[in-house]
Amino acid sequence: MGRSDSARRPGAPPRGGSALECVATAMLDERGRVTWWSRAARQLLGWTAEEMAGEPASTLLFEPPEWGLPGTPPVLRRARLRHRSGELVEADLLVAEADGAAERLLLLLPPGGTGGWDQDRDVARALLAQDGVGVAQLDMALRLVRTNAALEALRPEGGDEDWLCRLTAQDGGEPARTAFEQVAATGTPVAGRVYDLGPEGGEAALSLSCHRIDDALGRPVGVMVEATRVSAPGPTRLTDTYRQGFEIGDSLDVVQVAQDLTSVLVPALGDYAFVDFPDDVLQGRDPAPGYHGQEAAASRRVAVKSAYGEWPDRLIQVGESIPRVEESPEITAKHVGGVLVADRELSRRILGQDPELIRRFLPEGMHSSLGCPLYRGGRFFGYAAVYRARVAAPFDDTDIKLMHDLCARTSTAIDNAFRFAREHQTALILQRSLLPPAATSSTAAETAGVYLPAGGGVSVGGDWFDAFDLSSLRVGLVVGDVVGHGLEAAATMARLRTAVQTLADLDLPPDELLTRLDDLVRRMQWEATDPDSVGGSCLFAVYDPVSRTCRMASAGHPPPALVTPGGDVGFVPVTPGPLLGVGDNPFEVMSVTLPPGSALVLYTDGLLGRDVVGGSEQLKAVLAELAPVEGSLESLGAALLARTPHAEHPADDITVLVARTHAVAEEATASWEYPADPAAVQDARAHVNAQLEAWGLEDLLFSTELIASELVTNAIRYAGGPVTLRLIRDRVLVCEVSDPSSTQPRLRRALTTDEGGRGLFLVAQLTTRWGSRYTERGKTIWTEQSLDPTGNSPMFKWS
Q1: Three-class SS of residue 140?
Q2: Is 419 helix (H, G, I), strand (E, B) or coil?
Q3: Do 652 and 785 meet the contact criterion of CB atoms below 8 Å apart?
Q4: Hey, what's the torsion of the CAs at 501, 503, 509, 511, to 10 degrees?
Q5: Is 366 exposed, middle or buried (0-12, 13-18, 19+ CB in 10 A)?
Q6: What is the pLDDT of residue 99?
Q7: What angle do CA 143, 148, 151 make, to 5 degrees?
Q8: What is the DSSP letter of 154?
Q9: What are phi and psi of 308, to 5 degrees?
């Protein structure tokens, strides 16, 4: 959501607020330094409250300051101020002292006081004073409050104060009072509606436009009516038709746009109307510029309308291909020219006097037609035509202009739909290309993710999910939702997903990861033209298959659902922190122990719908029925989407990540603790050798003994005790050494003359991966060695 205040003209009071809100204010301490800075001051001079805090107010002035002495009355003076951009801003400045206090209040007003506020009142006075348009103000009970002289001149002879409300519509519709009541109740304005003046008015009529009047607090207080005299017979049909024409294009569905056009053409212009689209348009392909002949522009009928009920069976029906007609100047003009007016003879000649084509194209009794191609930006989007059969009058210049205007608006609506479709498709491709594989499998868990973009007129959003391996066989799970839709949201999602992977690779705990991610979003807000469009929610979880614990933190994201192997369904009670980009608030970590085979369901709020409470209960019921601890996770994700009540046309993107947890068997791990004694290194080597022999991993004895010896020696020498050594056997052999120090190790290349410094270098050469992560009591250095799958790979045993 953008900041609407930024679009308000300078000096105008805020929408729905007091005119005094346009006055820029600041509070100064006894030394003239800013202690408080209002939002209006930021809008006037560009400086934020953080930038002005503690700054001397005198730095805003081009000339030396002249503050009034204590006890002297405040003086209003014109000042030349410095805008943040370096430009000069003139304003009326007033410094007022508080009684008995050292603080002072600084007031800054644009030249002319409240400026736009006074101008609005001047405009209102001028409107009531002019004599070209009649103006009347009614209260909410539709009683006359005031009129101008022009409206009094339009009053029929003998008309009372209620004459305006009793006017009747020319088309036999409801009286003007009904329109006024609708405007007062809904706030939707009425434009150009024509009403008869009655017998006293003779041939004349009034065109009325009205809108609701709201006070400064947004409360409705009345209705303003503008009236002009028009000639009676002509404008009514055209005014209503143009008003209906504004409704064309409300939908981004091109077929619906065509149906909207035929609904306006009949009965406004004729008895029958149709719209044909090229196959490119119907298949979602952007037509190539220019007209390339009938064969290249093969088309199909998409919308019809008859003033007499059903569309005649003899004519081409909706969905049928349009028969080819021999090329002629008229056919070419039909596709590339303007509005084509044809009588029955010309129409028959265009169709080559072919009886079958005449029967398929022309309704019975048709005597004239009006056709217009749908062109926009040099691209042919289709063709629209209207016939007159029982309506005796031929088409005139007014009808031709109306047909041209309606088709131009329809072409614009179709082009807008294609632009939306292109951006939607681009954003969808971008987002799906950035998402991870739908299904993953690791020692810790198997996962499956599903994504459903928003339907209708909503573009693709910034929902994402991810699952990736971490050190010591752990797995990271993340799901997020970025503010907004379209390409910008997809690009923001890509940046955040990359940042999460990078931060997770540093083995940061969930709360610290979200804190750093929040910092990144805040920097992105400073860079964005619309800071409110950057932000979102995120939930990050880390599952450890050895301890079987899952630690998670939430940045304004809904809690994950948990299904235990016994079938119990609930939500993990994670405390949601602030949304990303809010800052200045800590995130809390929730730790939960998961039995092997548990299903953790992470999702975005699109799955719950607008009713979060009802959506949560629905999700629990569906999970209890689907039994996610069994079967394929991909099928489970698809079933979750299918069972969502609004899945066919979701109002927001829906993302689901399902993880089924595993656990490492107890016999696949071994752990020892040593004191800060160099003699303990010998014990560590003995323990490692004995354990590897028990596991049948004799080929890794030399390398693992050397790795454990170096890591334990460094821990005892530089960190003290106690030191913990742990081995984990799985698809890889993990060796961990934990100590109470928070100092991270650094790999360096030792000189030939150095006596030490080669330990980590040797470790790096003997392992496939190694790293270090912080813990609650210090740090852990871990290594991984690959196991030969044909010889030394152990049988995996889940428990």
Answers
A1: coil
A2: helix
A3: no
A4: -100
A5: buried
A6: 63
A7: 80
A8: H
A9: -120, 30
Integer Cα distance of 58 and 77 in angstroms: 14
- Tens of pLDDT, residues 732-773: 999 999 999 888 777 655 444 444 456 788 888 889 999 888
Please enumerate in sequence order all residues whose Cβ is within 8 A of that of 84, keeping only pairs 6 or more positions apart, or say none.
Answer: 45, 46, 47, 51
Q: Tell me which DSSP letter residue 22 carries.
A: G
Residue 549 is inside which H or E element, if any? strand 549-555
Contact yes or no for 552/540 (Cβ under 8 A): yes
pLDDT at 235 exceeding the cut of 50: no
Burial 382-391 (b: 16+ CB within 10 A, else e): bbbbbbbbee
Determine the Cα–Cα distance for residues 487 and 425; give it in Å rounded to an integer: 10
CB 447 within 8 A of CB 467: yes
CB neighbours of 75 closer than 8 A, spacing ≥ 6?
68, 94, 95
Q: What is the DSSP letter of 644?
A: S
pLDDT score, position 566: 87
Distance of alpha carbon 678 from alpha carbon 661, whole angstroms: 40
- Tell me phi and psi for residue 700, to 5 degrees: -100, 10
Between CA 668 and CA 730 the distance in angstroms is 7
Q: How far apart are CA 132 and CA 112, in angstroms?
A: 30
CA distance 609 to 586: 28
Q: What's phi and psi for 191, nearest 5 deg?
A: -130, 130
* Tokens coding 296: 């290249």
The answer to whether the CB of 222 falls within 8 A of the CB of 138 is yes
β-strands 104-109, 669-674 pairing: unpaired
53 in Cβ contact with 35 (< 8 Å)? yes
Task: Look up tokens 């954003």; give the residue.
Answer: 427
**Under a CB-based contact definition with an 8 Å cutoff, are residues 728 and 473 in contact?**
yes
Quick one: which of 483, 433, 489 has its CA closest to 460? 489
Asked if 468 and 477 touch (Cβ cutoff 8 Å), the reply is no
Pairing of strands 24-28, 34-37: antiparallel
DSSP SS3 for 683:
helix
Q: How far apart are CA 727 and CA 668, in angstroms?
A: 8
Q: Which two tokens stand for residue 68?
A: 């009034």
As a residue count, the chain comes to 799
Say yes or no to pLDDT of 269 above 90: no
pLDDT score of 672: 95
Give the burial class of 507: count Cβ atoms within 10 A of its Cβ; 0-12 exposed, 13-18 middle, 19 or more buried.
buried
- Classified as helix, coil or strand, 674 is strand
In 3-state terms, the chain is what percent helix, strand and coil (to 5)?
Answer: 35, 30, 40
Residue 50 exposed, middle or buried by CB count within 10 Å (0-12, 13-18, 19+): exposed
Q: What is the DSSP letter of 56?
A: B
What 8-state DSSP symbol labels residue 720? -
Residues 454, 435: Cα–Cα separation, whole Å: 16
36-50, 112-126, 311-325, 643-657: which has the minimum mean pLDDT? Answer: 112-126
Q: Taking Cα atoms as reference points, which of 355, 405, 357 lies closest to residue 384?
A: 405
Three-state SS for 587-635 is CCCEEEECCCCCEEEEECHHHCCCCHHHHHHHHHHHHHHHCCCCCCHHH
Alpha-carbon distance of 48 to 35, in angstroms, equals 12
> Which regions of 705-748 does DSSP assign to beta strands (E)?
723-729, 732-739
Residue in 337, 409, 395 with CA at minimum distance from that of residue 367: 395
- Contact criterion met (CB below 8 Å) for 134 and 154: yes
Buried b (16+ CB within 10 A) or exposed e, 713-729: bbbbeebeebbbbbbbb
Q: Which of 398, 369, 396, 408 is nearest to 385 (CA)?
A: 369
Of the candidates 703, 726, 707, 731, the one whose C-alpha atom is nearest the C-alpha of residue 792 is 731
Is the model's pLDDT at 274 over the cut of 90?
Answer: yes
Helices (H), 337-396: 344-350, 355-361
